[in-house]
Write a structure and sequence with these properties.
This is Phosphofructokinase domain-containing protein. With 206 residues, the chain is of the alpha/beta class. It has one domain: Rossmann fold (3-Layer(aba) Sandwich), CATH 3.40.50. It is built from 9 helices and 5 strands, in the order αβαβαβααααβαβα. The longest helix is centred in the N-terminal third of the chain and has 20 residues.
Length: 206
């Protein structure tokens, strides 16, 4: 439990760093979870919500549904006060309450084929405009390698095109393969639960 608490505090520290990147206190903070399901997704959101309750108590918190898909389609939910008051529920919940998807904003053909953008539109531009429309100051993306590469692509696009917005990519994967992160979110739980499973495996040869 102590190690779990330290991991959640480390997740929460990302919110403090994000606030320092803003010249003024953020008013609207968004979250999305992407890629495969992992045990740390909901608890990561819970840790961030808990930190922002102290760092930016008046900020509006929203979640884009099904990762980058929801960002492209403008599908989101606002976190009500009872969620902010009961973050322990999020920390105990597996998977993601926001839903996941596998979408790369740089894969234009796939985004068009799946109906996330129209022919001729640039997914990065669509995502940037949605963030601007929603008046997002900080976007937290929680996911694995592809999610963080896409977050980096989005952050560069925003910077190159004059959008004043901070993107914080958070490494989540049970595979523990996001370089140069030593231990990704979710990897410890996967290893721990796998060890429990194999500890109880019985091999009978008769």
């Amino acid at each position: 439990m102590a190690q779990g608490s330290r991991r959640l505090r480390a997740v929460g520290s990302g919110s403090a760093q994000a606030c320092r990147h803003q010249s003024v206190m953020p008013k609207t903070i968004a979250f999305l979870t992407s890629g495969g399901i992992a045990p740390c997704l909901s608890s990561s959101i819970g840790a961030l919500v808990e930190q922002y309750a102290t760092l930016a108590p008046d900020a509006e918190l929203i979640g884009y549904l099904h990762g980058y898909q929801g960002l492209l389609l403008g599908e989101s939910i606002t976190f009500p006060q009872n969620v902010k008051d009961n973050v322990d529920v999020l920390c105990a919940f597996g998977g993601s309450p926001l839903g996941n998807s596998r979408v790369k904003l740089t894969n234009v053909d796939d985004c068009v084929k799946r109906g996330f953008v129209k022919e001729g539109e640039v997914p990065l531009q669509v995502a940037a405009e949605q963030l601007k429309k929603d008046k997002i100051d900080i976007l937290h993306t929680i996911g694995g390698d592809d999610t963080n590469i896409t977050a980096a692509d989005l952050a560069k696009f925003l910077e190159d095109n004059g959008y004043n917005l901070t993107v914080v990519g958070m490494p989540k994967t049970v595979d523990n393969d996001v370089f140069p992160i030593q231990q990704t979110l979710g990897a410890w739980t996967a290893a721990e639960q796998g060890a429990i499973f194999y500890e109880n495996v019985a091999n009978e040869n008769t």
